[in-house]
Amino acid sequence: MGEHPVSGLALGALLHHPDWDGVRVLAAPATGAGAVSVRDVRTVADLRADVSCSPGSLLAVGLSGDREDWHLDALLRRAAAADAAVVLLPGHDPLRLASRLLAERVRLTVLAPPIPSPPR
Predict the structure, then answer these.
(1) Alpha carbon of 37 to those of 6, 32, 94: distances in Å?
(2) Count: domains in the chain
(3) How many of the other CB atoms lie within 10 Å of CB of 69?
(4) pTM across the whole model
(5) How far apart are CA 120 and CA 112, in angstroms?
(6) Could you list the residue range(s) of the whole structural domain that residue 69 is in?
(7) Which residues contact 70 (CB under 8 A, 6 or more apart)?
(8) What is the pLDDT of residues 39-79, one digit of tens each?
């Protein structure tokens, strides 16, 4: 059974979908997050995980890690080397400047989930 080419879904369309309301763009390539096309979704356990994905993948990281840790930069480099398009990080902290600049340089879009509303 041969592989079938998959057309991508524009990340901009996902970001404007009501189910993605509040998802934040922490870093994006110069072309902008809306120009990114997502063709697959893969999950890795944490920042130290090996990255194996197809080109254009959204890589979702399951467990949060310290955004000041060098492991985040290493994950971004591995994701870029695997031709991932997007990395979705858990947690609500912003990226440190060095990580944001790295993501932009390697043309990765980095997302974070919405900040939860306080309980009523």
Answers:
(1) 11, 11, 23
(2) 1
(3) 14
(4) 0.86
(5) 23
(6) 9-112
(7) none
(8) 999 999 888 888 888 889 999 999 887 777 799 999 999 99
